[in-house]
Amino acid sequence: MADASHPHLDTGRAGIILAGGRSTRFDGIDKATATVGGQPMIHRVAASLDPVVDELVVNCRAEQRDSLAGALLDFDVRFAEDAHPDRGPVFGLRTALRATSAEYAAVLPTDMPLVPSGFISHLFGRLQGGAGIVPRVSETTQPLPAVVHCRAGEVACTDTIRAGDDRLQAVMSALDVTVLDDREVEAHAGTHAFHNVNSFDDLRALAARR
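The line above is the sequence of Probable molybdenum cofactor guanylyltransferase; the predicted structure tokens follow.
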């Protein structure tokens, strides 16, 4: 029997964008709307996810919603607002997972605008019924981008929160995710695709690289 909060469980694919951070190294400016190649960063992330998922879910704070909606006019987006903001990405991920009835979700942060759609599609294809999959980049296992089973991911987030941990790495460990090795990652994306934009210096470096 379906859970009343998820009346149509386990169908399709969702794309989740985690955008609820405070962007403290952006001097109070929301980095999700910072421009990369003429487009808001969150628009580029949505464009990567949109071709390979059935719906887009954006986790954010309530006060971000209008500006993010303006940056995402090209997409049909569901917003999953944090009831208790500033509690970290694990809370944000759980909020987004609870907002979808999809079976699996690809998860990207708003500050990773170069991940290609083909790589996300490859993650979905390689998961093959498991609980989750993440890449190893430069010999380090990354928590994002990830594809996770939505209900298993929600439980793993709850368990991680109850353990007093606020790291996405702990969620992925709880899911016992498959790790895509460096060679396969390089073949389908290249390490440059995982460039994080955490500061204006990162944004300038990204612009110089393009």
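Note on the example: The two ends are 50 Å apart (CA to CA). The first strand starts at residue 13 and ends at 18.
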